[in-house]
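so the lab meeting is tmrw and i was supposed to have these ready like two days ago... anyway. pasting both below. for each one the top line is the aa sequence and the line under it is the C-alpha cells. i havent really looked at them closely yet so no promises
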Amino acid sequence: MQNLLDIESRVQRSPSPLSSRVGDDLVLFSNNRGMYYGIPVVGRRIWDLMENQVTISTICDQLMKEYSVDRTTCENEVLSFLGELEAEELVVRL
C-alpha cells in the first residue's frame, strides 16, 4: 500500500487524461479507466498549478494568495482532493 500524500509530496498531473474547460469548470477523461471527471473551479486551478512538478505546500501557498482560506483548511482540502485524483491515476507522485 502506498503512503498517503503529505504537504511536502511532489506531484504532477498525469499525462494520460484528456482535459477540456467547460465554463469555469474542467472535465477530465481517463482513457485508462474510461471515466469522465468534473472538476470545479478551485480544482481546475490546482490542476493548472500541477502542469509541472510541484510540492503540495507550494500549491497551498498559491491558493492562499488567490482565495480566502486558512492554511489548515487549505492543506486538508488539497490533500484530500489530490488523494482522490491519485487514486484515479490522474495525478502522479514524483
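ok protien two:
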Amino acid sequence: MSRQRCKQGGFTLLEAIVALSILAMAAMALYGWLNSNLLLLKRVDEVYQSVEAVESALEWVSILDPYLHPDGEQEIAGTLVTWRFVPVGGSLPAKDMHGNLSVNDAQLFRAEVEIRRGDKRLARFDVVQLGLQAKRRPEELVF
C-alpha cells in the first residue's frame, strides 16, 4: 500500500511565528520613529511658545519708564513677566539734535527680565534701555 501525502495549504506554525516576529520588529521601529518625532515636535512647540513670550515681554518692557516703574510684574497672555531696572552709570543732561540742552536728563538702565508660566521659567534676559527724566523747565532753556 502506498500512502499519499496530502498537501495542505496555509502556513506552518514556524512560518507564522517568523512572520509575526518580522511584523513586530517593523512596528517597533515605526513606533520609535514616531515617538522621537513627537518629542521633537513638543520641543519645537515649547521653543516657539518661549519666543512668543519673550517678544511680548520685550515689547512690554520697552514701553515702561524706568523712573516710574523701576521694578514690578505683569501678567501677559498667561505668562508672568517680572522686571527690575538697574541704573548703568550716572544721568547726563540730554541734548537735542542741534546740541542744545533739553528739559530732560538721560540715563541708561539695564532691565533684568524673567518670564514664568506657572512654576516653569520660560526665559530670562537683560536689555538696556534709555530713561528720560524731566529736570528743567522749558523757560530755563536758551535756544
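from a quick look at the 2nd one: The longest strand covers residues 79-95. Residues 13-140 form one domain. will dig more after coffe
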